[in-house]
Amino acid sequence: MTLPIQQDFSLQAFNTFGIEAQARFFAEVQSNEDLMSLLFFKGFKNIHRLILGGGSNILLTQDFEGLVIKIGIKGIEKIREDEESVWVNVGAGENWHEFVLYCLDNGWNGVENLSLIPGTVGAAPMQNIGAYGVEIKEVFDSLVAINMTNGELRTFTKEECKFGYRESIFKNELKNQYAIVNVTFRLTKKANFNISYGAVAQTLADMGVTTLSAKAISQAVIKIRQSKLPNPEQIGNAGSFFKNPEISKQLFEELKEKYPSIPSYPIDEQRVKVPAGWLIEQCGWKGKRIGNTGTHKDQALVLVNYGGATGQEIKSLAEQIQQSVVEKFGICLSMEVNII
């Protein structure tokens, strides 16, 4: 084994919450071969393993008594194109936002609404990341992942990934079974912009944009995100901690009678999506601090580490928020962040 393996390694710099936790073993891989050799090194045959991307969607609640594998596989390659589309294969370790900027520079459309989302390309399909009316599944073609039990390389199509709202097969039935090594996206050469969600259209108008472009939309999205979400380099957080709940239209109508200002986004004839941030704020949590943790002053959906908080403290806060939302609205909030 030539790959450097570190013991009792601090993960504080590898999670955006800035939680101090240690990995019994830690290694970063730069290629499929590195990953294979690490997965099947006889010394690690029966050890618990954690695949780590950008650390922007995890909450470490304890030391990890196993092997943490940081995916550092890089590379962006255009593999084919036609008159309308271009297919781009990207290493799982590439920074997501830097990939978005690369697409903008090359005139490839489809990911501009997903600007400034933290994390890596490999983590994007696991979570089916989404923002401002666009989800990764809309530009996704396929991915390649390594089976961590037998070393088999498998290609997953969009259908096989079973994408849902912040969901995929890798968060459910195949959780902890595969390590994603590269992702192929199908991007468009022609403009098909989406500015219908949130404050994108208004922000573009405020910016004085008269000719719509992917770069302009990206800049608007960046401006909105920076105004709403705290920078993890300044205060520890993992962005939105909870998913926006989907409820029945009947429950929504009942709630609307009691809370006429409740915002909503219709999904279909039977279901409605309600902003989790609004629900949390109505329960009095916005800007509330408990010890070294709390909710952000500008966005109740974001839990923060003011410095020195443990993962257990943040998890406890999240559970208290869930309980209060259930008691007030009868809605159970699901955590978007992965608890380790």
UniProtKB/TrEMBL annotation:
Reaction(s) catalysed by this chain's protein: UDP-N-acetyl-alpha-D-muramate + NADP(+) = UDP-N-acetyl-3-O-(1-carboxyvinyl)-alpha-D-glucosamine + NADPH + H(+)
Localization per record: Cytoplasm
Active site positions, chain numbering: 166, 240, 336
Oxidoreductase among keywords: yes
Residues annotated as domain FAD-binding PCMH-type: 17-190
EC number(s) per entry: 1.3.1.98
Keyword Calcium: no
Main location class: cytoplasm
Function of the protein: Cell wall formation.
Protein's name in the database: UDP-N-acetylenolpyruvoylglucosamine reductase
Name of the encoding gene: murB
